[in-house]
Amino acid sequence: MEVAKQYSRRRRRNPSIDRLSDLPDSILCHILSFLPTKISVRTTILARRWRYLWSFVPNLDFEFPDKSAAIDRVLLLHKLQKIDTFRITEGYGYNDCQIETWIRFAVERNVKNLDLHFCYEGWVPPSPKCLLTCKTLVDLRLTNCTVFPVTGAVCLPSLKILYLQFYHAYETLPHLLSGCPVLENLLLQLYFNYCSCRISSPTIKSLRINFHYDDCSEDEDEGEYSYDRLEIDTPALIYLELIDSSNQHIKCGPLTSILGADISFHDYIGRGFLHSRSLVEFIDRLHNIQFLKLDLSHYSEEVIAHVAFPAQTTTFHNLIELELTADCRLLWKFLENAENLEILTFSECCEEIEGRAEAPLPAPRCILSRLRTIKLVKIKGKKHEFGYIKYLLRNAKVLKKMEITYSEDLDSQKMINMLKKISLFRRGSRACKVAFVGVR
């Protein structure tokens, strides 16, 4: 306490004391590395000591509206022969020659992390060959900025993280991945129509794919959509995120190591039976999974009810947590085939229709002995909703909590009646608490 008081008195006697300048240059450079480069450069006016300090910062971070001439000058004056990170964010108005020069600068200085994000205006600058043979590169993130060659040397022996968000990349991807022997994390985003996309790697552990539906992909001559195909061969995969609104056929190799997946399928153009069967076969590959988020909210009732999932008999022995957005008929399928399920989140995407599948009897094993937490999303107080809520509460013998979210836009009297009715349902677990949460 006495030391603190002495320090406070010294500060009052000399309020202009500069503690920051007492730090060694290495610490100051580390602090500057968290700032955009243009801010780092401005520190030259602080004092004589700061004049060239920015030029020893290991990270270079440029963003719009940084001018090309300013970037060139920074690179000319930069002193370090090794840099950790080179980043351009929201780049706009640069030409191919400038971008190639900057990439070469980074590669020649043994860059570890390269992040280039350019605004797409119908122009995609090419990548210099040196980028594809950079031995020090660990993290490569490219957005709207490059089209890789289909042939030529690719040698990225240290690359572990690869993010590609660009156009017409599908045909170059196999060649690119073949030169990444230790790649672990791949993010791929395609915007335009394609014919076939193949992802093959024995080392990838995390795979995130986002295929955007292209409403301009319809064949003008035949009035039909092209046949799109996705192939995944990643035996070491642990986590998969797939947002797909484009593929008619999905082929997937064994996924024996996978633990978690976030899957969202969109069938905007009604591709029908073959696409639905392909979807079922793909979900079968996830039988070893522990955590699954599955969103089929953009599928028609007919696809779910009559084509895809009546034949869904895959057993998910390891599934512990399920977040499902679909028809309740698919919910019953999962509960029957996931005997160790403990956490369930369910959001129904289809309106009430005739012929809805009845809840299974006797109750599945997971409901009787495993299910501990249930969250039901945006309940509207419909007859069949009361049916499956009552069924779950009555049969879940070890349930600890059921959370029911409802729309605050519901008529107030209808909402009150709904909550009262659910509160009176008999509970199979004495420890079960029911919580009601209003959402907008």
Structure summary:
The protein contains twelve helices and 18 strands. The protein is an alpha/beta fold and 440 residues long.
Structure characterization notes:
This protein is α/β, with parallel strands linked by helices. It is 26% helix and 25% strand. Strands 1-2-3-4-5-6-8-10-12-13-14-15-16-17-18 form a 15-stranded parallel sheet, covered by helices on one side. Helix 9 links the parallel strand 14 and strand 15. The protein starts with a helix and ends with a strand.
Number of strands: 18
Helix percent reads: 25-40%
Based on helices, strands and strand pairing, what is the structural class? alpha/beta
Q: What is the residue-averaged pLDDT?
A: 83
Order of helices and strands: HHHEHEHEEEHEEEEEEEHEHEHEHEHEHE
Strand percentage: 15-25%
How much is the radius of gyration in Å? 28 Å
Strand order of the largest sheet: 1-2-3-4-5-6-8-10-12-13-14-15-16-17-18
- Coarse morphology: elongated
Number of helices: 12
List keywords for this structure.
single chain; 440 residues; alpha/beta; 15-stranded parallel sheet; 12 helices; 18 strands; elongated
Provide the fold topology.
Blueprint: H1 2-13, H2 25-32, H3 37-42, E1 59-63, H4 68-77, E2 85-91, H5 96-108, E3 113-118, E4 139-143, E5 161-166, H6 173-177, E6 185-190, E7 196-200, E8 206-211, E9 229-233, E10 239-244, E11 249-252, E12 260-266, H7 273-284, E13 291-298, H8 301-308, E14 321-326, H9 328-337, E15 343-348, H10 365-369, E16 373-379, H11 383-395, E17 401-407, H12 412-423, E18 433-439
Helix pairs in contact: 7-8
